[in-house]
Amino acid sequence: MKKLLLLSAVFNILVVSSYSQAKTTTVSKKVAPSTSPSFKNLSDSFSYALGIQVANYYRQQGIKNINANLLAKAINDVYANKKSPLDDKSIETIMMKTLMPEQYKKTGLAIETGENFLAQNKKKAGVITTASGLQYEVITQGTGPKPTIADSVVCNYRGTFLNGIAFDDSYARGTPATFALTGVVKGWTEVLQLMPVGSKYKVYVPYQLGFGGNDYNGIPGGSLLIFDIELLGIKGK
After folding, report:
1. 3-state secondary structure of 26
2. Which neighbouring-strand residues pair with 166?
3. 8 Å CB contact between 182 and 190
4. What is the CA radius of gyration of the chain?
5. Is the overall model pTM greater than 0.70, yes or no?
């Protein structure tokens, strides 16, 4: 899904020169420009050429129509630092529905089940919900330092699906794991910075903060993941 979002971002940015002056219309492969574009410099021609390449890629993916005005508005809003009406989760869902409809059908139930669980779980005493949608419970609050984004940490953990089946377990392996905070899923990166060394948290990771909407190493796309995480130390400290 990160790849899809990256391709989408590239598409939006690269075609700005060719679409920024477009009139309200829907663009498809059957619509031909009435006049040839005017290239004032290499940047103009580069933008147009790259726009053709990326547009052709999406057409090959089955995208038949693109609203040129909305495309241009999205680009302008990004460069003007305007707040988007779509959050990351909405963008991911839209991209998957459009580019990977079969995958979305497969993962839709998992996503819905996870979201329903989180909606009820947040009402439980002791469950904290962050702005990103991550949820956690403090089982044991440590007294050591908290890691920063630049740190690597030593943890014991157990990860399960919503049905209780474990998919990863350092306790069972008998060896703690060492992770860089920049090398784990977003949910881990966020919660580890909240945990003093010596803490043990139960963490509920929504799919968008986990492995996204695609299957990954035996983890079905859209899965809500539950972790028991014990922060044993910060590497080098």
Report:
1. strand
2. 160
3. no
4. 22
5. no
